């Protein structure tokens, strides 16, 4: 008998919960085959079989709590189960087992690809095909979600699909999550494919859409067959779907009676939908709650007249873009003003480590970016030595990498201060949450034409509210207010940049 032991769970992790067993007592197992999944408050772990043989005992059921070194079960070593512990499935269907072996020899594995630097695992998304369905080579099968990016997996060959990792399962690079039976006889072993051959044939002509594209198509009532595809392997990209959505739909105009069918009874529609949170969303939720529970967070506000910045930008934006190859936005001015304020008030650029305060003499500015998967904060390194053009290029590159899911772990760590711009979504005012362990975060908002008093007269000016959330443990109210005043002064008088005042 070989013991199935709970592995070390990582630093400061004392226990784990049994998520699920992939085998039952009596099932034949192979060495290094996945047997049980464990979950901790930090990570999910997979425990594999220590030897070939039969799963002889399960000591802990799903939901039980275990500690490192605990015996989860036992494997009876040997090629087959002992006579007294015969596995019913293996005895009842020896011919099926032999057939499965023959199919595996003629099948092609569906493997998890490398998911990027520092990404060690991901979660299986929704399968686009069911087990037993016939698939075509390069047809989209499933997306693997990580805390950074979603990776599409296509069929490596024509054949019949077998699924070994269900939606929601945790997988690692190189892991086999399914098989494509390439032989023609394999279709006979797939009753689902036999039961609905017409459906499989009709589905093969449909374009294969990623979840993001499916959402755009559904929201805009588009016909996927009418969308011009520009993606690799003839796939429809999100940009293709958005372009089609922006064009008038002749079908709806030609047949107005069909465009507005009678709404189905309310009872036929689900009132609720339960969807598992993505890994990125789980990480965002955990970090924001940790920030709330750790720091003494407080927010102070000010407002800035954007007239001078807007006039300067309008005057030079064409020449700037022609010379530097990038558009002149507002973010570069805010980064410059922020760095000037941080140099004057170093506590806002610091962090707490136990009973020590670490003052940062470098200025790595995090820029919050909203993506389809959630909010990420890539870091613009050494922003204090960059020109306005350098800042605009750096922010543009980080934004594209975030939206494409190409950010590396290094680009997401080590920031000293964060800027978030809710104004691009129309936000008038907000209280941002600190990006721990940083001591401050600046919130930009929508620019609104408002009446203000200027030298005793009422004038209409483009005004923006600014918000600074800060850690009151190391930043006093006077420092926070002064910080916002300095930013206001620099933005309302941009010549201060040139004079380094």
Q: What is the helix fraction of residues, given as a range?
A: 25-40%
Strand content: 25-35%
Provide a count of the helices: 14
Which value, in Å, is the CA radius of gyration? 29 Å
Low-pLDDT windows of residues: 80-105, 184-204, 251-257
Specify the overall morphology: globular
Largest sheet: 7 strands, mixed
Mean pLDDT: 80
Total count of strands: 27
Task: Name the structural class.
Answer: alpha+beta
Write up this protein:
The structure is a single chain. The protein is of the alpha+beta class. Helix content is 28%, strand content 26%. It is built from 14 helices and 27 strands. The strands form seven sheets. Strands 17, 20, 23, 24, 25, 26 and 27 form a seven-stranded mixed sheet that branches. A hairpin with a 4-residue loop joins strand 12 (140-145) and strand 13. The longest helix has 18 residues, at 307-324. It is globular. The termini are far apart.
Which key phrases capture this entry?
alpha+beta, seven-stranded mixed sheet, four-stranded antiparallel sheet, single chain, 14 helices, 501 residues
């Amino acid at each position: 008998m070989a013991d199935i032991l709970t592995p070390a769970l990582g630093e400061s992790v004392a226990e784990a919960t049994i998520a699920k067993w992939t085998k039952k007592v009596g099932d034949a197992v192979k060495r290094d085959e996945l047997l049980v999944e464990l979950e901790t408050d930090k990570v999910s772990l997979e425990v594999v079989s220590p030897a070939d043989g039969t799963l002889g005992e399960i000591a802990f059921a799903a939901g039980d709590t275990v500690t490192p070194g605990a015996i989860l079960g036992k494997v009876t070593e040997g090629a087959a189960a002992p006579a007294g512990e015969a596995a019913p499935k293996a005895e009842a269907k020896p011919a099926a087992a032999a057939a499965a072996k023959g199919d595996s020899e003629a099948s092609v594995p569906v493997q998890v690809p490398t998911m990027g630097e520092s990404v060690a695992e991901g979660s299986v998304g929704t399968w686009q095909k069911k087990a037993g369905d016939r698939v075509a080579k390069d047809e989209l099968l499933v997306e693997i979600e990580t805390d950074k990016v979603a990776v599409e997996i296509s069929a490596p060959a024509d054949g019949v699909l077998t699924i070994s990792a269900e939606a929601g399962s945790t997988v690692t690079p190189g892991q086999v999550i399914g098989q494509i039976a390439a032989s023609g006889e394999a279709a006979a072993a797939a009753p689902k494919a036999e039961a609905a051959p017409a459906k499989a044939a009709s589905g093969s002509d449909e374009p294969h859409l990623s979840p993001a594209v499916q959402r755009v198509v559904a929201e805009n009532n588009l016909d996927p067959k009418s969308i011009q595809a520009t993606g690799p392997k003839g796939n429809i990209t999100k940009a293709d779907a958005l372009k089609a959505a922006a064009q008038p739909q002749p079908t709806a105009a030609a047949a107005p009676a069909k465009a507005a069918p009678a709404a189905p009874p309310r009872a036929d529609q689900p009132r609720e939908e339960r969807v598992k949170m993505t890994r990125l969303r789980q990480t965002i939720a955990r970090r924001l709650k940790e920030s709330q529970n750790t720091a003494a967070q407080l927010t102070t506000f000010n407002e800035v007249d954007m007239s001078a910045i807007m006039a300067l930008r309008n005057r030079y934006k064409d020449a700037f873009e022609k010379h530097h190859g990038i558009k002149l936005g507002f973010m570069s001015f805010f980064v410059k003003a922020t760095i000037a304020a941080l140099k004057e008030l170093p506590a806002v650029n610091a962090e707490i480590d136990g009973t020590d305060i670490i003052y940062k003499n470098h200025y790595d500015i995090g820029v919050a970016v909203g993506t389809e998967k959630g909010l990420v904060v890539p870091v613009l390194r050494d922003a204090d030595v960059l020109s306005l053009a350098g800042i605009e290029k750096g922010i543009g590159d980080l934004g594209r990498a975030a939206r494409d899911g190409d950010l590396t772990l290094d680009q997401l760590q080590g920031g000293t201060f964060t800027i978030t711009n809710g104004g691009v979504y129309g936000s008038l005012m907000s209280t941002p949450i600190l990006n721990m362990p940083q001591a401050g975060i600046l919130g930009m908002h929508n620019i609104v034409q408002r009446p203000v008093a200027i030298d005793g007269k009422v004038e209409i000016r483009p005004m923006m509210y600014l918000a600074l959330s800060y850690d009151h443990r190391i930043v006093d109210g006077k420092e926070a207010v002064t910080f916002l005043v300095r930013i206001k002064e620099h933005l309302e008088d941009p010549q201060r940049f040139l004079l380094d005042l």
